[in-house]
Amino acid sequence: MEDYYQYSDECIKSLVYTIDDYAYFQNNQTLTEAYKLGLDNPAMNFTKALAGNFSRAPVQCYQFGLSWWNGLLKKYAQFNNNIADYLIGWLFAQMGNALKYKVIFDDITKDLDNQYYPDIAY
């Protein structure tokens, strides 16, 4: 997806790392002796989780959404701003993909019949 739209990789990574920071906070919150004594360690972990990847995620994902929207408008303009032409183009693209998959599955079936397993693995 990052080949077509800017910031898609950064958006996905910041969201994944935010979930990772949250899991780290949850695990580290209960496993420390400092948690029993005070709130220093959980508070610091929480501020790291909040100020780290979570703070970058909205900006990165907004820029990705903006890039996606501008790409969609550019693609739509190539079809003379006609929704019917755009949908027909999408439908024909899906039909082309289905034909590619049919050829692949037919080749796999033929290789299974001939017991040519390296080609199946490929």
End-to-end separation: 24 Å
* Number of H- or I-type helical stretches: 6
Beta fraction: under 5%
Report the helical percentage: over 70%
Structural class: mainly alpha
Number of domains: 2
**Which blocks of ≥5 consecutive residues have pLDDT under 50?**
none
| Overall strand count | 0
Overall shape: it is flat
- Main pleated sheet: none
What is Rg? 24 Å
The chain-level mean pLDDT equals 82
What topology emerges from the helices and strands here?
Elements: H1 8-30, H2 33-37, H3 40-51, H4 53-77, H5 83-114, H6 117-121
Kindly describe this structure.
- The chain has 122 residues and is an all-alpha fold.
- 84% of the residues lie in helices and 0% in strands.
- It is built from six helices and no strands.
- It has helices at 8-30, 33-37, 40-51, 53-77, 83-114, 117-121.
- Helix 1 (8-30) runs antiparallel to helix 3 (40-51) and helix 1 runs antiparallel to helix 4 (53-77).
Structure at a glance:
This protein is an all-alpha fold. 84% of the residues lie in helices and 0% in strands.
Keywords:
122 residues; mainly alpha; 2 domains; 6 helices
